[in-house]
Amino acid sequence: xxxxxxxxxxxxxxxIVDCLFDAYSHPRHPYCDLMLPGxxxxxxxxxxxxxxxxxxxWDADPNEQWMNVVDTDTDRIIGISRWVFYPEAPFPNGPxxxxxxWYPEGSxxxxxxxxxxxxxxxRQAQRCREPNAWLGTxxxxxxxxxxxxxxxxxxxxxxxxxxxxxEAFVEASFFxxxxxxxxxxxxxxxxxxxxxKEHEGNEEWKHLEENYPLEVEWLWRPKRADxxxxxx
Length: 232
What we know:
Layout: E1 3-7, H1 13-24, H2 30-35, H3 47-60, E2 64-71, E3 76-86, H4 108-127, E4 132-140, H5 149-164, E5 167-173, H6 177-181, E6 186-190, H7 203-211, E7 216-221
Parallel strand pairs: 4-5
Antiparallel strand pairs: 1-2, 2-3, 3-4, 5-7, 6-7
């Protein structure tokens, strides 16, 4: 099963979603399940929305670059990354206010999801004040893990960042952060999202926190980090 790194194309989005749903359900990734309903359980009912979502992102942001790792025996996409290369600070006027419109208006899960999304954007705006590379998405199909797929995807991005002379950021899952450290990423913080005061004592909000926690580690890589890349 030879593996090959390829630039993603819009026509790949259906396969990309299949890969993400497989990756985020083994094990279940709570935040991704919140952002892409069904991803954490590999529920095919969630895939049409996810495909539309990524198609809209693809068309809207020229700074994004998708990379795929393909099993050349089957031509199946088995690993993906979504890098965003910002030529300047992404939020010079402060972070935008976003809304989780895929959930019913007035529902608590919509409010909770919007709260987490905006908390993340505030952190990004505070830290990413120069041109930077942002690794927004990375996933590897469960059956292909421990074969260097994630390293191929991360190495491509940091080499591109070095060519551009920019720093890089990623919000890593706790079980995946070791991969990024091998490429010069450094710990910034473990993100702890504080409950809004108006929801103190709200049992339904507490239930959402338990089912959909945001558990990530902020990592930063300086410009042109003088690190040896691990062998892929």
